[in-house]
Amino acid sequence: xxxxxxxxxxxxxxxxxxxxxxxxxxxxxxxxxxxxxxxxxxxxxxxxxxxxxxxxxxxxxxxxxxxxxxxxxxxxxxxxxxxxxxxxxxxxxxxxxxxxxxxxxxxxxxxxxxxxxxxxxxxxxxxxxxxxxxxxxxxxxxxxxxxxxxxxxxxxxxxxxxxxxxxxxxxxxxxxxxxxxxxxxxxxxxxxxxxxxxxxxxxxxxxx
Length: 208
Fold this sequence. Notes:
By secondary structure, the protein is an all-alpha fold. The chain has helices spanning about 1-20, 20-30, 30-40, 40-70, 75-90, 95-100, 105-135, 140-160, 160-165, 175-190, 200-205.
């Protein structure tokens, strides 16, 4: 786990090409040959690090499903928005790594999309379409809504140092995570912006 954590930090900050296995090994407090022993290569380590993050995300989604199934389409989408904001606050490495990999076509990107991103993309698009059928997000192409949603849910945590310098606020604090989740829901579902209608308790929101 120490190797995976060090790899996520390195790949997220420096990208695949910039990250060096010797530096990852040093950050994990292990010898470099141990990386080759466990992961076979630098790309094997990268894939294991990506899979680790998406396994965590899948587990949170599985925890959320029973609650989502008991809600109508609009409320379900609001819950997913909130949970995803909290997940990104807890694991900002996911978006940092994605930004590094998704700006240019590569075999790694092909693998990443087919193995991990596409299932999430299709599931979120289904929620968006259901919400649109109930009157929310009208006039927005579902794929465009997906990317708007992703940017809104992740941006402040990816750019946390700049945000803190500009505002003097730590975006990772529990209170700020809740407030930011509220803001994202208000942006996409403005009729609930005052949080007065069926708002879930903050403690439940942080389950993700």
